[in-house]
Amino acid sequence: MRPGRSLVPSTSIESETGSGKTEAALWRFAHMYEAGLVDGLYFALPTRSAAVQIHERVERFIRNLFPRGVPPVVLAVPGYEPGVDASSVAMQDYEPWWEDRHDDDRPWASKSPKRYLAAQIAVGTVDQAMMCALQVKNAHMRAACLARNLLVVDEVHASDTYMSVVLEALINAHVRAGGYALLMSATSARRRAIAGCITARDLTMISRLAKPKTLPTPPSAYRMAGTTIS
């Protein structure tokens, strides 16, 4: 999983649930970030509840990865309090946000759904990324923000036919813009359907991950600059 100069832009992981795909994706991001290949991460999941659950795990990993100057992990799920931990509950009411308000300490990228992809690290629903490939307002801004991030799409097997077509367009556009993508699935059929539009030169597959006995924990003294990730 350590990236090199010849790293292909699109990779897929096919393995059963609970085999460590999430941790593999996070470590891949860490290695790519250290190598200067990406500036951030967008971790996309099919449902709001799945995004809320994964958010806490990603936040814990990022805290260990950056002992100083920890970037906020934005919860890119409309209807939930953004910029806080995954134990948040759905907001009962939306409060208008005014540009001249200075008492709001939430990250700028979490204050509006159209800004979610501007976050350095974000966990959210896959539809936020899919809007980059649709003819909708702010699509180009979303795509530009995503271009330097590693796009991780989890539970690809949960995609229906429509989502698969849009994901194909999204991955192709993201790769052509110089971005990197990682598709994760518990089954191969849907992953192969989505990957079918990507040339063999651009796609590698990591198949059947062995379930680890213990998951790796980043060292507390970890430093991003001038250090090799172990």
Give a verbal description of the structure.
GO terms for molecular function: ATP binding; endonuclease activity; nucleic acid binding. This is CRISPR-associated endonuclease/helicase Cas3. It comes from Geodia barretti (Barrett's horny sponge). Keywords: Endonuclease, Hydrolase, Nuclease. Pfam families: DEAD. The protein is an alpha/beta fold and 230 residues long. It has a single domain, classed as P-loop containing nucleotide triphosphate hydrolases (Rossmann fold), CATH 3.40.50. It has 6 helices and 7 strands, in the order E-H-E-H-E-E-H-H-E-H-E-H-E. It has helices spanning 21-34, 48-65, 126-130, 139-146, 161-176, 188-195; strands at 10-14, 40-45, 73-76, 121-125, 149-153, 180-185, 203-207. A 7-stranded parallel sheet has the order 3-4-2-5-6-1-7, with helices on both faces. Helix 5 links the parallel strand 5 and strand 6. The longest helix has 18 residues, at 48-65. It is globular and about 40 Å long. The N and C termini lie close together (12 Å).
